[in-house]
Structure formats: C-alpha cells, structure tokens
Amino acid sequence: MPDVQSTVVEFVNKLRKRKIEGSQATAKYTVELLRSVISHQRVPHANQAAALIDAVKAVGEQLIAANPVELAVGNVVRRVLHIIREEDLSLTTAAMGGLDLLDASDDDDVDNCKGIGFPAMSAAVVAAAARSTLRPPSLQTLLEGTPESATVPYTSSSGADSESKTADKSSLTRKLKHDVIEGVNQLIQEIAGCHEQIAEQAIEHIHQNEVILTLGSSRTVLEFLCAAKEKKRSFRVFVAEGAPRYQGHLLAKELVARGLQTTVITDSAVFAMISRVNMVIIGAHAVMANGGVIGPVGVNMAALAAQKHAVPFVVLAGSHKLCPLYPHNPEVLLNELRSPSELLDFGEFSDCLDFGAGSGSLQVVNPTFDYVPPNLVSLFITDTGGHNPSYMYRLIADYYSADDLVM
Amino acid sequence: MGAQKKGGAAARVSEDAEVQSRHRLQAILLADSFATKFRPVTLERPKVLLPIVNVPMIDYTLAWLESAGIEEVFVFCCAHSMQVIEYLEKSEWYSHPNLLVRTIESHKSISAGDALRYMYEQQTETSQIQGDFVLVSGDTVSNMPLADLIQEHRERKKKDEKAIMTMVIKQSKSSPLTHQSRLGTDQLFIAVDPLTKQLLHYEEDKIDHPSGSVCLEKSLLDTNPSVLVCNDMQDCYIDICSPEVLSLFEDNFDYQHLRRHFVKGVLVDDIMGYKIFTHEIHSSYAGRIDNFRSYDTVSKDIIQRWTYPYVPDINFSGNRPLKLGRQGIYKASDVVQSRSADVGASTVIGYGTKIGHGDKIMNSVIGNGCSIGSDVVIEGSYIWNNVTIEDGCEIRNAIVCDGVKIRAGAVLQPGVVLSFNVVVGRDFVVPAYSKVSLLQQPTTEDSDEELEYADSSSGTADHLSGLNLQMESKASELGPDGAGYIWEVCEGAHDEEWKHSVAPIPKDKLSEITQAIDDDDTDDESVVPTSGELKSDADSINTDVNDPNDDYYYFEKEVEGTVLRAVEENIKVDLVTMEINGLRLSFNMESADCAGATFFSMIKLALDTPHNSGSELYKNAASIITKWKDLLGFYAKKIDEQIEVIMKFEEMCQESPKELGPLFTQILHLLYDKDVLQEDAILRWEEEKAGADEADKVYLKQCDTFIQWLKEASEEEDEDDEDEEEEDN
C-alpha cells in the first residue's frame, strides 16, 4: 500500500505541474494506477464492492483535482467504477443463479465433470439479463454487450468453478477482485488499442484523390491517415499549424516521413483553403455528453468554415475521451489558459509590461482548447464505429454508471 | 561507462565527472535576502514566507526546483529561522517523495557570502554538496527548466576547469527614463562574449550619467574578437555553481554580496582565471522579488500567467486552487460577494473573504479570511490574510499585512506599507510612501546595506510586548483609535522612495525626469545604443579607455586634494612634499608634472576662495603662493620644470580668461619675485612661444613689457658682470 500511495502522489504531482499531457497518456497512467490500487486494496468480507469503489473514488478524486481540465482522468476513473459495479452485479446474480445450479448438480453428480461451461454461460446470460433489465436496452448493448460480458465472467468463473462446491465468501471476495482486475485489464487494452481500432475504419472514410484538412497534432489522426495510405489510397493532407504551440508542424513532419502529400497552412488560412477540402478530420481532447467537442484552439473556426462550405467535419475520439458530463455544467473546467510566453517573447515585450512606469500594460490570453458545438460535427469515429453527434449520450451511457457522474 | 575507455590522468578526471553526474541534483536556497528592503514587514516574518498572490514565496521556489528535477535542497535559514523551519515542517515539502528538503540554520551569517562560507565549513565535516549545485534565493519565482542547463554547465566544466559558474539572464528592457528595470532594480550593464557566452563585465551599480557611459577594460577588446554589450538584460539570480565557488568564498573572506563582490571579484581576478558564463532564457520566466516594486511586478506576472504552471488556479504546492473567471479574475469558491460590488480585471480573492456593498476592487490581490465593508475602494493593492477593512476606506497601491484593521473612512495613499496587526484610526489619512509597523523603527539605523536584521531574529517577541506598552502610553500616530508607528524615511533615501515602492511612478516624477533628460540632450548627444556588438577593430569605441591623459587627470585631482588639505590643516611643507612624492610614484609621473599640478591646485584654491574683484583674487593668490612657495620651489627646481609651471598657468588662464587672464603678468611677476621662477625659464618660455600661433600668444603679448624688462635687466646684469669683470681685470 505505501508504494501505491507514493505512485499516486507522484502521478498527482505530474498532473499538477502539467508534466504529463495528452488524453491517451493520462488515461493510460490513470488506469494502470487504479489497477494497482485495486490489487493492493484489502477487501472486507461484507460489501467488497463498496470497499473497492471507495478506494478508487478516493484516489480518483485526488487525480481529478490535480488537473481538472484533463477530462480523460475523470473518464477513466468512472469507467473503472462502472466495471466494479458491473462485476459486483453479475457476481451476485451469478451467485444466486449458481446456488440453484449447484443444487441441481448435487442431485446429479455425473453432470459435474462436463458442466464446466454451463454455470459460466448462465452467469453471462444472467448478467446480460440483469443489464438489460436495469436500463432500457440499447443497440449498443445488444450488439456489443453480450459477447463482451460473456467472455469476462467465463474466464473468471471457470477459475472459481474448481472450488465452487464451497462457494464461501472468501472465494467470492477474491473472485470479485479478480474479475474487476480482468475488466480493468481489458480497459487498458482498449485504451492502448484505440488507435488501431479507429484507424481500421479509415479506408471507409477516405477516398482516392481526396483532400483532407486537419488542425494541430493528434496521434489518432496520424494513425488514421497512415492507415488509409497503407491501403494504397492516395490523397492530400492540409495541416493547419495550430498556433501558438505549432503542433501541426510536428504532425506534418511525421506525415511526410510516412510518404503522404502534406501541405502546411496557417490557422488563419483555413477558410481560404476549405473550398478545396473534401473532409476535415480532427482529434478531440474530449467529447462531451451532448456531442460537443473539446479540441485544440482554433478548431471551432475550422468547424464553422467547414459548415459554410458543407464539408464533412469528422472527429476521431477513443472511448476514453467520451466524457459523461455536459459542457454547460459550471463545475466542469473546459479550458486552461497557458503561459503567454508561448505567444510572444517576454524580453521583446517587457517594456509593455512595466507596471511601475504607469504606461498601459499588455494582457495576453492563451487558451488551450476550443469548444465545437454538436451541430457543427458531422460524424464521430470511435473505436466502436461511426456515430452521429446526437447518439453520443447513448454511447456514453453504456460506459458509465449514473451513480458516478458526480464524484 | 565512458570513463573506463580513457586512460591515465584523464580517466580520473572524467571518472570524477562521471561520479558527479550520477550525484543527485542539489540546490542551495537562501531563505534570507540579507537586505532590509522589505522592512518593516521582515522584522516580524522572514521574507521567504511573505505571501505573493496568497502563496508564500518559498513555495514558488521549491515547487519550481522540484519540477525542474532538483532532488535535494538545502534551505539556509538565517533571520527568523524558527519560523521558516516550522513552516517547512508543517508543509508538504518535508514529506515530498522527489525532493529532499533539509534546513541549515545559522544566526551569525549576515550576508550571502557568510552563508556560503558556513556551507563550506559544514561541507568539510559532512560533505553534503557533492557536485555542481544551483544557488537561488528563496524569493525567486521561475518556471525555467534546469536539467539541460546543469548538463550544459557540467560539460563546459569538463572541457574547461575554470568555468565555475553559469549565470541565468533574461531579456528585459529597462525604462529609458528611470534607468530602472521593471523589477525596480538598477539598470544592468553586462559584456558577454557572443560565441562562448562568457561573462566579461558586470555592472549593476547606479549609473550617474544619464547618457549611461560604462567603462570597459581595454584588455577585454584585446583578448576577445568580439564583445556583446547589453543593457537590456535582467539578472535572474539563478546560478549553477561548481563546488569551487564555495571554496572561493572561503578564500576571500570579504566577499559578501553575490554580485557586487563575488562576480566582480572573479571577473577582475586574472590570477586564478576562473570564468563565469551566462545563459539566456527566452520562453521561460524568472524573476526575483527584491523590493516592493518587484513584489508588485512579479505578482502581476503571476496573475498574467507568465509563471505557468505556478498560477493561482493550479494547486502546485498545497495551495488551494482558485477558480479563474473572465478577465483574469481568480476567485475562491466560497467568497461572499455583494451583488453591487464591482470586482475588476486581474484580481485575486482568497478563501473565506467577504466583500460588501458597492465595493470597487481593481487589479488587487486579497488574501484569505478578509472582511471588507461597504463602499470600499481597493486599487492595485495587496491585502494579505485576515484583514478587516471597514466601510468607506480607500486603499490605493498599498501592501496591507496580516491582521491589519483599517477603520471606517481611512485612506491609504499610494506606496503605503502596513505591517502586521497595525490599526489605522477612523478617517485617518496615511501619507504616501509611509511604512507603518507596531514595532518602533530601530534607532541605530545601519547605513550599510549589507548588515542585516540578524539580531532581530532572537528578540522580536520580547520586543513586541515591551512596545505594546509604550504604544498605549503614547498617543498613536495613526489617529486616536489606531496603533502603530510611522517609520521615518532615512534622509538620503527620501527622493528614492518612489523607485522601489509598490505604487507606480507618479506622473509628475516621470515628467520631471523627461524634462531633465531633454535638457541634457541639448548639450550631450552621445547615447548608448540599447545593445550592440562591438568589434575590436572598430575605430570608435563609445567607452572610456584608460589612457595617460586620464591618469594625469586623476593625479591632478589627488594633488589638488592634498594641497587643499595642507592649506586647511596647515601641514608642514616637507610632509606635503612627501605625500606628493608618494602620489608621483604611484602615478608614475615626472617631477615637472608635480610642479604643474601643485601650481594648478594653488591657483585653483585661490580661484575657489570667494573674491569680488581681480585685485582680491590677486591678493588671495599672492598669499597662497607666498606661503607655499617652498613647496612649489621643491618641484620647480630645473628650468624645464619651471617652464611647465608657466605653461600650466597659461593653460589655466585660457580656461578662465575673464578672471585669471588679466592677472597673468602680475602673478608671473610675483612668481619671479618670490624666486619660484628664474628669468631663464621665463625667457626660454618666451622663445618657445615665439613660433606659436597668434591665438596662443595672447598672454605672451600681455607680459611683453615684463619680458622686455627682464631682458633689459639681464642685459644690464650682463653688462654689470662685464663691468665687474672688467673691473676685476
């Protein structure tokens, strides 16, 4: 536990000092940290799920407070909480169902050796049933939910099955923790693999001889474009440089290294170039529950330009970027003002900043993010496929429990 | 790793370096400024614990060091060391996973030099400092990365053993009017080698000439192909030092100030040949809070987010983050603010503060737990924690410390500093630039800036109780219901007060200076360019270079002083000659120069004594010459020397033709009469002058009759001689 505590403190420090940035990196760190929190957490006999939830919540609150603008942290914490709740639910229902099954198998001992898959199947079915009874069925759960929840309890319950004769509380406890860690591991894989998942769909969206515009730098966008290139699609990319951090320059470098036809333009030239563009693709910092997008500064301008010329505006977002909160919530911090030194050189302007001399002082504002309202977004591409902005709330509801929205 | 490959002595060196680079990164933080600029506030609390934008200064420094990758910090506590240590113990710094904070206590140190000497002594016992270290003071606010810089320093050190320090500088233009940087310090002139970035010259002292002339050693231009002279740099007081720096301080026990003594000492000393390098930062911020002006400036830089991520809405060191709203207003979540209150741009309001009806708050920082009545105006001020401000007060450009009470209707004029727990009486107007404290001003004010409040650390508490009694007996200086003493401003510093105050420079002062500069411009056209590269082969160099003429000028000055003193104190002639002989030797002058200079000083003295007419002046000169003719005679023995005297006299007459001109012949005659000058000398002078321009002959013509008379006299004498000879024969 002490070493977990120290890693928590270290991560909190990094978040506070803004030393770790980018939603994928933070999400990865967070989920790995939470996994070790869970594995080190001692679970009492009664109410194990609550103990885990409390532990995760305690750490999660620290992490969120450390950098409230990095929404991915909160998203991952809520995802982990959701996993704990789900596993707890499926386990209790499975236990109830399992007891009946055990009674049945006691009557018929011969069944026991071949019935390995049987209780697992039933648990999965029960879990799926429980989910669908708890909330109205969605297309997502129907399509995705069943196979996923079938695999998770399968591996776990098969381990438990060897000692299922005495399904006492201690094994149940270990089972819950084990299941949760399994679930978290899946989440880790999902976050790590989201680029590939999204990139796989590239071929469906980018067509031959198209012109794509992007702004700033995003790893997702890079992978997406490269995936299309690998499939022998030939197209051109315009990269708006993304002042004042000019991350577009980095993206352009990468793209050229991978053999794409790349043109760098200034942010202010976006409107001039948009008429030649077939599609705008950007990476999001976060996607809010209403389908609004938080992206690098300047994105809203690009979205408005795209709308004016009826160019599709496509947003790429891994599932860890889906935020269950609404942007009009005053508690949600959507933007951060960074140092003015990114805009201009302190030394050159130091005479404009001389407060003592009484001359008017220069103010510099350097916001990091921009908000794009949902009506400007044509399509979201997540690791589960393409979605309409109005559908985002539904997608998000699958990933999070309503209990965790307010931490 | 790389060390094993090399052999012999070189291997040892690089091994050492290798060991060094594996050492943890260390820093020495001086938790004492060794200055009195923040008095009276620092009498009660150490400067590093004073809040800047509601967070103690030391937290900014530690947070920055920690995030820059420093692993161990030695906090050197001096004044109020207990308070610093207590604070650190309570804060999260003592238990920080990445940063080991150790405190070192010493009450004897009264300067940065002493502190480093103390570190050196400790060092010999415990060897805590293992390699290169960062030297900063606890009032630095910065966000610059250090790791690369330390690496750069180490590599340079590996190549050049003598590169012992790297100094961080930052471009910051100083005001053309006041010659003051935006941090309130005097303009800094530095000369740097543009290629190696070696520091060649450092001058921070006040530059008296408005045109700003700087003296550079001529040898600098000989040894360096090009020199970059800048006056738009700001010294950040962040130094990367090698261990040699500590031993240098130990060797030179008179080094007190890091810049004034140490840096200058190293630059001047060419025996050891140590070198200092500079590193200019561009994108990151660094500033040191040295006086109230820089307190104001750095606070505003923090609010403007130049110090990101050390800004009020980020929890960087255990501070409670505030919420940033529109227009740069940082507000705590639990502030109780009346609807009619007007909170303007760039304002910070801390936790638990109440703001009443109709208040106007602009450009200010308000701490935690303050209560502000209604219709209060606060502008450009810094209100610390738990301050009570009653209805209708007006506070402009002031600093108000913890626990102060300002009663209804009181007014603080610009530049006021109220120290802890002061009470300002009802409707009292605190005059501009006054400093108010519950403690009385120390009567024995030490004029030396280096000597600090070392003694105040111990006796403050007893002091306070004693003073409280006094205060009750004495009617307060802050109105009938007030409490506190208004400190008197030292005589010399009075007109300087506006320079270092929190208040912006008053308009009338600015126009005054502008006026003064305009006047100057008419007769003085040389203006130093802001920054430029001086090539050594350039013909015109804007700087004064030591040449023989200059030497003579100083010599003359010295002689003048000596003669003046001799006249005033009536010193014996032989003693004066001895002194002048000493000067002659030290300036490497000829005896003729002495004669000239002595005569010059005597006439100067005569000119300086008040006189109404030419005859009076003559009388003065005559009396002085009569009295000191032996002195003059001592040097003007030979004909050449006597001619030098006459030439000098002529020169002086040309300089002040109205006063001295008419007296030329008279005084020449006098000198002849007093046997100072021989007729040969005068005649030789006449011969020399015969070939000169007409303009130069003015005085020759004036004394034409005298010379004629001399010639005749000599002829007569000759004749007499001849006669005598004849007679003899």
From TrEMBL, chain A:
Entry annotated with the keyword Magnesium: no
Biased composition (Polar residues): 139-161
Pfam families in the cross-refs: IF-2B
Keyword Transferase among record annotations: yes
Subcellular location: Cytoplasm, Cytosol
Subunit and partners: Component of the translation initiation factor 2B (eIF2B) complex which is a heterodecamer of two sets of five different subunits: alpha, beta, gamma, delta and epsilon. Subunits alpha, beta and delta comprise a regulatory subcomplex and subunits epsilon and gamma comprise a catalytic subcomplex. Within the complex, the hexameric regulatory complex resides at the center, with the two heterodimeric catalytic subcomplexes bound on opposite sides.
Name used for this protein in its record: Translation initiation factor eIF2B subunit beta
Protein species of origin: Arabidopsis thaliana x Arabidopsis arenosa
TrEMBL record, chain B:
Keywords: Cytoplasm, Initiation factor, Protein biosynthesis
Tagged with keyword Hydrolase: no
Compartments, record wording: Cytoplasm, Cytosol
Annotated ranges, domain W2: 549-720
GO CC term, one of those recorded: eukaryotic translation initiation factor 2B complex
Principal location class: cytoplasm
Xref: CDD domains: eIF-2B_epsilon_N, LbH_eIF2B_epsilon, W2_eIF2B_epsilon
Gene3D superfamilies: 1.25.40.180, Hexapeptide repeat proteins (2.160.10.10), Spore Coat Polysaccharide Biosynthesis Protein SpsA, Chain A (3.90.550.10)
UniProt cross-references to InterPro entries, sorted A to Z: ARM-type_fold, eIF-2B_epsilon_N, eIF2B_epsilon, LbH_EIF2B3/5, NTP_transferase_dom, Nucleotide-diphossugar_trans, Trimer_LpxA-like_sf, W2_domain
GO MF: guanyl-nucleotide exchange factor activity; translation initiation factor activity; translation initiation factor binding
Region of interest called Disordered, as start-end residue ranges on this chain: 441-464, 518-542
Quaternary structure note: Component of the translation initiation factor 2B (eIF2B) complex which is a heterodecamer of two sets of five different subunits: alpha, beta, gamma, delta and epsilon. Subunits alpha, beta and delta comprise a regulatory subcomplex and subunits epsilon and gamma comprise a catalytic subcomplex. Within the complex, the hexameric regulatory complex resides at the center, with the two heterodimeric catalytic subcomplexes bound on opposite sides.
Family per record: Belongs to the eIF-2B gamma/epsilon subunits family.
Identification of the protein by name: Translation initiation factor eIF2B subunit epsilon
Lineage of the species this protein comes from: Eukaryota, Viridiplantae, Streptophyta, Embryophyta, Tracheophyta
